[in-house]
Specification:
The protein has 222 residues and is an all-alpha fold. 63% of the residues lie in helices and 0% in strands. The protein has seven helices and no strands. The N and C termini lie close together (7 Å). The N terminus is likely disordered.
Length: 222
């Protein structure tokens, strides 16, 4: 896995300076049962009727799903008056876990934003979890950097818009006092936005440092 980000020494990565005024920058009724946390129905009534429970177990194991997923399937199919073949499911699930619980895959699973629900055998769980956590730390820090950059961009667009809004409000004839009040209000708004942007900039700088550190540590677990 290649790491695309780089880190500048602290002394060469100053808080960015800004120009004062502007910156370039059916599932229908046939579906039964409860929903999973991600909002998707586990199975339909028709799927329960024709289910290959070994294949379902294998698929769930290969995706690292925990036993709660089987309980969801059992509940849905019970409402469709279909009894789950838990024995065949368990056989398939064990086979699927062999594909999932490969220590060498744990890092990329975390780095790609996956989840680990502690489904691997106790003998390898600690090592799997360490590698997964190292990858997940990279994913989380990258997401934080992205989130902060998007917030900065939003604030900068808002800052730019204040000039257009001010110009529009001053377009109609106003007395001097009213014009000064409008100008003062917009300048206060711009001052607040600039302060918020500078604070976000500092947060972004720290988040990039954390991303760099997570990536540096992650290289040890590749």
């Amino acid at each position: 896995m290649k790491f695309l980000s780089s880190r500048l020494p602290a002394r060469t990565f100053p808080l960015r300076h800004r120009v004062r005024h502007m910156r370039l920058p059916l599932v229908g009724l046939a579906l039964l049962g409860s929903l999973l946390l991600n909002g998707c129905a586990v199975m339909s009534a028709e799927e329960c009727t024709h289910a290959d429970w070994y294949a379902l177990g294998q698929a769930d194991g290969a995706k690292g799903r925990d036993r709660q997923y089987l309980q969801e399937r059992i509940s849905v199919c019970a409402k469709a008056q279909v009894t789950a073949d838990t024995g065949r499911y368990a056989q398939g699930y064990a086979q699927g876990l062999q594909q999932y619980c490969v220590v060498e895959n744990a890092f990329s699973l975390g780095a790609n934003g996956g989840q680990y629900k502690g489904v691997c055998p106790a003998a390898i769980d600690p090592q799997f979890r360490r590698r997964f956590d190292a990858g997940r730390a990279i994913y989380d820090t990258r997401q934080e950097v992205k989130r902060l950059q998007e917030r900065i961009n939003d604030k900068e667009r808002e800052l730019t818009q204040t000039h257009k809004d001010e110009e529009r409000k001053l377009r109609d004839p106003k007395n001097a006092d009213e014009r000064r009040r409008i100008q003062r209000d917009f300048e206060q708004r711009r001052h607040r936005l600039r302060s918020e942007i500078e604070q976000l900039d500092r947060q972004l700088y720290r988040a990039r440092d954390q991303q760099y550190d997570a990536e540096r540590r992650g290289r040890q677990h590749q």
